[in-house]
Amino acid sequence: MSKKFNSGLNIKHLMPEQPCVLCGAFSNDGVWCRSCDADLPRLGNAHCPVCGLPSHNSEICGQCLKYTPSFDATLSTFAYAFPIDKLVQAIKFSGRLALVNQLADALALCIVNRPDFIVSMPLHPIRLRERGFNQSQLLAQRLAKTLGVSLLTDVCKRTRNTTPQSSLPWQERGKHMRGAFTCSADLTGKHIAIVDDVMTTGTTIGELAHTLRIKGALKVSAWVLARTLPH
Ligand SMILES: [Zn+2]
Ligand SMILES: [Zn+2]
After folding, report:
1. Smallest-distance ligand from the CA of 37
2. 199 to each of 13, 46, 52, 88, 142, how far by Cα in Å?
3. pLDDT tens-place string over residues 104-154
4. Does 96 reside within a domain?
5. Buried-state track 32-54, b at ≥16 Cβ within 10 A, e below 16
6. Among 115, 134, 145, 217, which residue's CB has the most CB atoms within a 10 Å radius?
7. What whole-number percentage of the chain has pLDDT above 70?
8. Residue 142 Cα to ligand 1 middle (Å)
9. Which ligand has the minimum distance to the alpha carbon of residue 71?
10. pTM score, two decimals?
């Protein structure tokens, strides 16, 4: 049974005065300022509860009815559009913790159902070595701490270093991801939230969700900063 648990959640900390990463104005609001925050491309309330794409009256969309994904719910704070795309790219390349934390806190405010565990989208070891950190894990660490939910680390692994999804035709993506992950934990009866920075087609998160289900997960939610919207 899920219950709303973050009422009264206070994640605004006292911030030092700093220039906004988006407009340059000095404030105590954090990495970006309050007026830029108001202009960020937030997703509206009317979206498919499964895949997070806009849908009439928040009904399950036709695509999800036709091909039910392995995850049950998607929670995304933003549309993957300017300037969120720039902020997400910035954490991918710099791993700047203040920025990661402010983005994770924006996502935390949207979360109403407490999962049993959080997992982050794993990077293949070769990619991790190139980059030095996994931005999804940094986001997941902050969310776990803020929400008081355990983060399962080193349980899920990416065993294939797959080509970035965006370079593949849509139909190829599902096939391409099959068997890309392993999970070493017994998740029988558990609700797991997968944390990732962006959901594009949902294929990668779907494949990880499928892996978690094989290990017994009862419910899988996808928590992402941003959702790519169809043109
Ligand atoms: Zn600003
Ligand atoms: Zn859908």
Report:
1. 1
2. 28, 17, 9, 12, 19
3. 999 999 998 999 999 999 999 999 999 999 999 999 999 999 999 999 999
4. yes
5. bbeebeeebeebeeebbebbbbb
6. 217
7. 87
8. 23
9. 2
10. 0.90
Joined tokens for residue 57: 């009256």
Any domain includes 35: no
Q: How far away, in angstroms, is 37 Cα from ligand 1 center?
A: 7
Q: Which ligand is nearest to the CA of 55?
A: 2
Token output for 179? 């068997």
Point out the ligand nearest to the CA of residue 40.
Answer: 1
Cis peptide before 83 (omega within 30 of 0): yes
pLDDT tens per residue, range 162-176: 666 556 665 666 666
Ligand that comes closest to the CA of residue 22: 1
The partner residues of 221 in beta bridges, in order of sequence, read: 73, 193
Quick check: 1 pLDDT over 60?
A: no
CATH of the domain at 197: 3.40.50
CA geometry: angle at 74 spanning 2 and 170, to 5°? 155
| 123 within a domain of the structure (yes/no) | yes
- Count Cα atoms within 13 angstroms, Cβ side, for 99: 19
